[in-house]
Design brief:
The protein is mainly beta. About 5% of the residues lie in helices and about 25% in strands. A hairpin with a 4-residue loop joins β4 (about 80-85) and β5.
Length: about 100
């Protein structure tokens, strides 16, 4: 498993429709801002690092946060993306509160 250095991902609206989306109404202020590339996943529940088809633990690649109340993943959840650099397999895991 290769560790990728951590990068903060800051979403930027690419059109007027995205720019007009309202923020979360009731969620904590950090919800919607937990996007990340590399580093360690901020699992909401228990650690859940998948194994690829070549039976190796996969490398954490990114996490994507819920966007707002309309595009919320479960209960303010996140998608975690993993990659195997040996066989170029990817898997994702979704967790929420």
């Amino acid at each position: 498993m290769r560790a990728i250095p951590a990068f903060k991902l800051t979403p930027e609206p690419l059109d007027q429709e995205a720019a007009a989306l309202p923020p979360f109404k009731w969620a904590d202020a950090h919800i919607g801002k937990r996007h990340r590339l590399g580093g360690q996943p901020d699992f909401i529940q228990a650690d859940d690092v998948p194994t690829c088809s070549c039976n190796k633990a996969m490398s954490f690649y990114a996490q994507l946060d819920s966007i707002n109340d309309e595009f919320v993943l479960g209960d303010c959840g996140m998608i975690y993306v993993f990659v195997c650099f040996d066989c170029l397999t990817t898997k994702s895991v979704l967790q929420s509160f």
